[in-house]
Amino acid sequence: MLESLVTSKTRIKLLLKFFSHQNSGYLRSLAKDFDESTNSVRVELNRLTEAGLLVSEEEGKTKVYKANNQHPFFTEIKNMVSKFLGLDDLMERIVNRMGEVERAYIVGDYAQGIDSGVVQMILIGKNLDQEYLNFIRNKTYEKVHRKVEVSIFEEDPGDISGIMVYGN
């Protein structure tokens, strides 16, 4: 879906990075993460900044970019990216049908805005339906071609670096 609207693969990677989470990044790290040339990343960063979708600020000698959450289409783009990744549907199904889920976190690469093909989750709750979890893992892989890895805790383990939080 997103590929039919946006023809630049680098631009798609940037949109995924900045609109799937509240991430920031600078040119060289983005080029390294995406395995792209700094020039191709720079061109797309400039285009997205000129369109008002990204904002930048200087941190020392480094220009840091992030999504412009004041842009009129911020929420729509964020929702579109989430649907593209299939995470909104996955998290909603898990929270609603797994049992007593108190919280669900996306961690790992996706929490950093990197589409590695593996979605790492942490579920906090009691009496969770393991059978349904296995079913939803397989369905997610079939639907969005991403492996789902889940860690389950009965209590909140403390400092979780997850950006996306679902549940109460």
From TrEMBL:
The protein, known as: PaaX-like protein
Xref: InterPro entries: ArsR-like_HTH (IPR011991), WH-like_DNA-bd_sf (IPR036388), WH_DNA-bd_sf (IPR036390)
Top-level taxonomic group: Bacteria
GO biological process terms, semicolon-separated: regulation of DNA-templated transcription
